[in-house]
Structures are given as structure tokens and as C-alpha cells.
Amino acid sequence: MKLLQRIVVILALLAVVLFNSGPSFADAQTTQEVILRWYGLINGLVRHTPTYSPPVAARAFAYLGVMSYEAVASGSDNLQTLAGQLNGLKPLPKREAGKEYNNDIVLNAALVSFTQVFFENTGPFGLKAMTALGEQMTTKVSAGVAPDVVERSVAHGKAIATAIIDWSKNDGGAVIKNMGFTENYKMKVGPQYWVPTNQQALQQVPLLPGWGNNRTFAIPKISACELKPPIPYSEKKSSAFYKEAYEVYDAGNHLTEDQRALAIFWSDDPLLTLTPAGHGVSIALQILKRDNVDLEKSVDVLARLGVAQADAMIGAWHAKYIYGLLRPVTYIQRHIDKKWESLLITPPFPDYLSGHSVQAGSLSVVMTKEFGDNFAFEDKTGESDGLAARHFASFNDAAQEAAMSRLYGGIHYRGAIENGLIYGRCIGQYASALKTRR
Amino acid sequence: MFKICLSASLLFLGTAALAQAGVVVPHFADETANSGIHSIYKGDWQYMVGGGVAAFDCNGDGFPDLFIAGGENKAKLFVNKSKRGGALKFEEATSTGLEFDRATGAYPIDIDGDGIMDLVVMRVGESQVMRGLGDCKFAAANTSWNVDGGDAWGTAFSATWEKGNTMPTLAFGTYIDRKFEDEPWGHCTDNWMLRPNDKQDGYGPRIALKPSFCTLSMLFTDWNRSGTQSLRVSNDREYYEGGQEQMWHVDAGEAPRLYSEGEGWKYVRLWGMGIATADINNSGFPSYFLSSMADQRMQLLSDGAAKPTYKEAQFAMGTSAQRPYAGGDERSSTGWHTQFEDVNNDGLYDLFIAKGNVDKMPDFASKDPNNLLLQKPDGNFMESGEKAGILSYRNHRGAQLVDLNLDGKLDLVVVARRENAEVWRNVSNDLGHFLEVKLVEDGGNRNAIGAWVEVKEANGKTMNRENFVGGGHVSGKSGFLHFGLASETATQIRVIWPDGTKGEWQDVAADKFYELSKSAPPKEWVAK
């Protein structure tokens, strides 16, 4: 009798585990393929669409993550919608009760619609690639599925995408003019303020000065996280500011091989890489694939990460245009060494806070919450660009390195980095606190 | 203090205004309709780049004839029937051997040193070296010279005579691997180089130039005046991964190797479309202009001949040309062929950039006129395309500034995607004096590729001009080198020959055409 009871208990536990774990990638290779192929293409599109600077890319990954999550959540007994939790997100279309849907088809249809709208301005090859993948994946996920299920699932996927796209339209970041360089921007005047750092006509004004006013996703308002000011500007050699600048100068002149490698690894330049947010998403995708993470957790992670990184960029841009601090290369050339140049290309916008650091801080919080502290992983994001993989003992280690890479690259002062990480961690808490499980 | 600053500002403004007023804007007349030129660069994605033109004399009359790539259309050779100083007139030649389909562009070069110009035709598929037979007839020479023309998307070419060789070393540039039409990113095919065989009667096996990064222009150029040309390569960042602009050491007897960061080569990445070069600031060293999307790049040598380090100066010099200057389209521009020449004969290099959207790229201008940037006496440039009469909104690609009617004033031919090529005659009547010279030497390098020509100016400066094959956007020319002399009616000229021999300074009169050789005084060229 006891044996029978034990067997019943074990079977019951097994049933609970099987029931609650949702479809794993191992059980649903097609679903994994839908996510990985579309995210892979979108990473390519981010890299090859001229308006996709880091804040714009972060925004797209947020909407993409939320949409993918909602497409799955609308058919899940375990997941609850983010409507009402994310700013401005209203209840999304529901599936018809009692009717059969196919998750892969819903997700794929949503991704087709989303990509067509968010990347309508990409180049001719991007457009061809979108069309080709759409046709390929639509054929694949529809194979063997009853026509009425296909029709219903496609309609639902499109409806989810439409709702997300509508939500995105009035957040302040939907229209990017002149590649994000606002021509009538009134520059702050004074020795401590940003000035152009290159010879590109387009970049004689800073990038996206209004981005910090955009609607945030998970943080209720931009002031929710405390923003520490930079140390006071000074040109005196004894000042803390001079010392911060000198640190960048000195580090740049004495880089170790590893410091140089990591600066380039985390460079994440727009139009040449996936951008910082895309890099973060790439890390997540590598882990989801490596660990065969189930679908529900996968879309949960991608949604939280997308939201955290987008809020991080809004927060960083908010800070950048409050302080308008000049870049190290400008200060160093004026006051330390007029021929000095940074290892990395100095981005065309103010220094403080470091966007990369804020983004990395937010990522570390979200990913640590999802996967745990001391979660080791390897990052192969730069492999196609010939950059060796880097190993990390935890997400915090990765964030620390990503942030410091900007000092080694010669493009940020330490204050912008360290305060950026703190600010980013605060922002990441809001995405981490989103309630996704019923 | 305020007064001093204000006075200085006013003085500066006054000087600038005077400088601008002192620039003569040339005037061009669109003679396309009656020129006899009708050639459309046609085709879909494999022809979104390319569309070149080669200007060279194929029949020995001295007038440049025009080979125009047609993409999916047949390429055409137009024989120049213009009278000196007269309207531009051409006749399409038939049965020339050059009626290729899938041609993207071409460069003229006398490969076998027989005094008859050959033509290297870049193609989607096998690129072809065509041996000139005279009277505008050509024969395929890939087989007889063992030229590996590849099977790639041919988009760039350049050549140099390495020390001791009678035949040139050839460099072929290629673009995207055509197998990856749906996701082309990161799929660039190898560029390669061909060196002459030991007998100097053909070529050895290809030498891959790895890594290659989807190249749209190549140029052998003596960047530090060492006497040896290096190979500059401009690459399209849209399609490469981990790529950058490149320059290769090409030293006789050694494998080509990339200039490194340690040597001073900087990491530059852009949508590289074309390379122009000239010593625009009389420094004795060439500067480079790289056409791209949005901001074009002007690169000036910054640390002297010891290091190939260039600083960008496009914004300061007024050559950014990042958006259309006319037509009301405020989106960013797309630059293609680019070339330095002196179009107003004032002794200062001017800059031409062909413009046109790749293919309905929404963030880039669809009405994107070609730029004609005139250099001012202060070294900066001013846009003059509209004033000069070359305003056109066709979708331009390759081009040449070349003296088509041998009147000492440079004319303009521009190829357009899906539209007819255009030709403008320089009809200015208020330009400065000019000088045109053709280099001739014995041996294989008949046209002295790699030579430098130096011409003295009235202001005590020297104009320096490199004689090269390559650059631009799949477009090249051979024949007379043109110099503007401003008010000078006579000057002195000398040649630094490819073997390093410095010729004597020779007296020459303005407004003449000369042939220059090592062993004889300048010989005035007279049309047959």
C-alpha cells in the first residue's frame, strides 16, 4: 500500500512538473527556431538599418520582447499579461475561448508583422531577408496544421503585433529624423559642455537629445531612480575632474592586451555591431539556446531584458542632456595632450552617464534574477567579427567589464561608468519586479 | 577685448567673402540628347552598385572614346567624333569585342605595352581583360595571358608596375557572395592580385587578399612618395563583419600584407564606394577622398611619410556633402564615383561626387544631385553643381571628368542606374589657362603608371599629380593629364618617372598638349 502511495505521489509530482514547465525547446524545436531565427534576423537588421542607434535599437528590442511574450502568454495558463504593468500598455487581444491555436504560428505571424513595421526603412537586402524568412517560417510552422487553426492563429498573431505597434507609436521614439541628429538643437555653451568630436557634418549636433523624455516601460517615471551628478568640472590639475580625465588618458596610453581586447569586444558601435542592447539580447539568446530553456521562460527573459535595457537607455539619455558633459577626448586634447586620441570612436553625444554602463547594470539585475548569482557563461557575440569569446563568472562580472570597457576605450570618465552602473541597477529592478507568473 | 574679437571676426568674414568671390564657376551644357550617347545601366540587385565608364583613346586619334557598362544591358563603346572645342558627338561602335552583358565598369590600361590601350572589364561573373587591337577592336585575353578573371561580383580594379616587371600587377576587387542573396551580411568574397609570370608574358596564380570586406574601390597609390605604390581598398560596411578600410603593402617579391595599426593605419569604417586622390594642398603627398553614404570623408596625411596616418577634414574643408544641396530632399546622400580635377583651370583641385540612392533606401535622398565642389584659395571647398549647370536627379553611379573635345576644359560623363547616361560639355569662356600632358616611355609601362608629374605655379607652389590606374567607382581613364594654370601663360614641368628618375624641369607653354618622355624635351601633341 505504501508502495502504491509512493508511486501515486511520484506520478502526481511528475505530472505537476510536466504540466507546469511548459513546452521546452527540446519538445518544440520549431518554436525555438521561430524565436532564434527571427531574433537573429532582427539583430542583423539592427546592424544594417541606418536609424538604429543604441537607444533606438533598445526600444525595438523592448517592444519585440513584450510582443513575443504576449503572443505566448495569451495562450498560457501560467503567464499573465504585462498590460497594466507597463506604462501605457492596454489589455491585448485575447484568444477565442475553446478554439484551437498554434503557438508557433501565432508567434511567427506576430514577428512577421512587427519586423515589417519596425524595419520598413532598412536597405534592399534587409527587406529581401525579411520577406524570405517570413515565407520560409510561415510555410514551416503551418505544415500539417488544419487551415482554420492556421487562419485563426495568424489573425491572432497579427492582432497582438498591431496592438504592440499601436502602443509604440506615441512613446516619443517612433519617428527618427536625420538619423537622430536634431539640427536645431541648441548647444550648451561653456567649457564643461559637450562639443562635436569628429568631422562628420551630421554629428555636429548630438544624437537624440529628446530621447530622455520618451515614455518609459517599467519604471513609473524617469525620476524613480536617483541620479547622482558628475563631479564638479574643473581644469585645475589638483581637481578630481582633472584626475578623472587623466585616468582615462593614462589608461589609454598603457592598455594591457586584455584591456584593449575587452574595449573592442564591448565596443558595440551602431551600424557595425548589434549595439549594446542587441549585445545583451545576444547573451540571453546564447544562454536560452545552450540551456534549452523552455518557451515561457524564454519569452519572459526576453521581455524583461528588452524592457530593462530600453528604460536604461531612456535614463542614460535623460542624464546626458541634463549635464551635457564634454567627452574625455575633448578635455584631454584641451588640457593634457592635444594629440591624444581614444581607442574607440567617441560617440556623438555627451558623456555622463555612460549609456553602456546603465544598460549593463540593468541587464545584470534582470539576468541575475532569472538565472541566479554566479551564473557562468561564455559570450560569443563578436565571433562573426573575428572577436574571441569572453567568459564570465556572473552577470555582474560581465556588467562590470562592459562598463569599464568604456574607460579603456577612452570614451567615458570613471564617474559616468560607476554611477551609470548604479543607476542601471536601479532601473533593472523595475523590469525584474514585473509579474509574469499567475 | 570684445572689440578686438569683433574686428577679427569681421576681418575673417571679409577674407572669406573675397575668397569665395574669387572662384570662377565653370559652366557646363547638357549635350546628352544630341551626343549620340545612349546607354542605360540596367538590372536588379546585382547591379545596385557599379555602372562605370572608361574614357580612353581606342583609335589613336587622341580623343577619348567611352566604354559604358550596361549591367543586364550590353556594354557599349562610343567612338568620339567631336571636333576640338566643338559639341560632343559620339557614334556607337559595333563588333568591337566589348559588347558584354553583366559589365559593372572598366579601366583602361596598356597591359602588354604595345602602345594600344587594353581594357579591363569588371563583371558579375568572370571579369575580362580585353587586349586592344587598334581601331577600337578588342580580343579577350584572359586565356592567352592566363588572367584569372574569377566568377564573382566584380566591383573594383587597380594596377601597378612593380619594380623590374614589364607587365603590371593587377588587383581585382569583389563584393558580396552571390549565393547569399537572402542574407548577404558577412558574405564578402575574396579580392585577389595577379602578378606577372617569370617570362613576363602572362600571369601567375591568384594571390588572395585575405581578409576582404566587400570592396567598391581599389587604388594603387604612392601614399608616402617612396617610389612604390601600395594598394588602398575601400569597403562597404553595409555587408562586411569585422571589416574596415584597408591598405596593403605590395612590395616586389613579397607577399602582400596589410598595413597595421602599429604602423599608424587607423581603424576606419564607412560605406566605402569610391576613392579619389590628389595632392590637394600642395603638400607633396596625396590626400584621399572616400565617397560613402551620409558624410563623405576627406583624409589628409597627418604624420608625414613615416606613418600612413590620416586625419579627417571633411567638415572643416566643406566636403562633407552629406545631403543634397538642391531639390529639397533633406535625407542623407549616397556618394559613388569621386574624382579630383581642376574644372575651372585655376590651379586648384576641385572635387566631383556622383550621387544616387542605392535602391529606394528610405532614409536616404531619392533626389540626390551630383556634387561639384570647387576649391577656394583658402583650401576649402564650395558647392557649385547647380550654378555650374550639372544639376540632375538621375540615380548616378560611375563617371569621369575628362576633356572629351580636347579644348583644355574638362567635360563630364555620368552613368545612371536604370536611366540614360548623361554627358555635359564644359562651355565656360572665362577659365584660366591649362596644360595637358601625356606620358610615354619605353618598355612595358608605356604610359608611366606610377609616375608623378610636377607643375610650377605662379605662387611658387608646385602642383603634384600621380599617374594611376584605379579608384573612383568602377570608372577610369587614360590619356592626357590635365592641369589648370590660372593666369600663367607658361610654366615648367617635370616628371618623376616610375623607376625614380627625376626628369629635368622643362619649359612649356600654356594651352597646349604635350607628350613627355624621359629622353626628349616636351613634344607638342597635335591632333591628326
Folded structure, characterized:
The complex is a heterodimer of chains A (438) and B (528). With 438 residues, chain A is mainly α. Chain A has helices spanning 2-21, 29-48, 54-73, 103-118, 124-142, 147-168, 240-253, 257-265, 275-290, 295-323, 328-335, 355-371, 395-408, 414-432; strands at residues 377-379, 390-392. Chain A has 14 helices and two strands, in the order ααααααααααααββαα. In chain A, strands 1-2 form a two-stranded antiparallel ribbon. Chain A starts with a helix and ends in a 6-residue tail after the last helix. Chain B is mostly beta strands and 528 residues long. Chain B contains four helices and 38 strands. In chain B, the strands form eight sheets. In chain B, strands 6, 7, 8, 9, 10, 11, 12, 13 and 32 form a nine-stranded antiparallel sheet that branches. A five-stranded mixed sheet of chain B has the order 5-4-3-2-33, with no helix packed on it. In chain B, β10 (152-160) and β11 form a beta hairpin. The N and C termini of chain B lie far apart (68 Å). Residues 1-20 of chain B have low confidence and may be disordered. At the A-B interface, α2 and α5 of A face α3 of B.
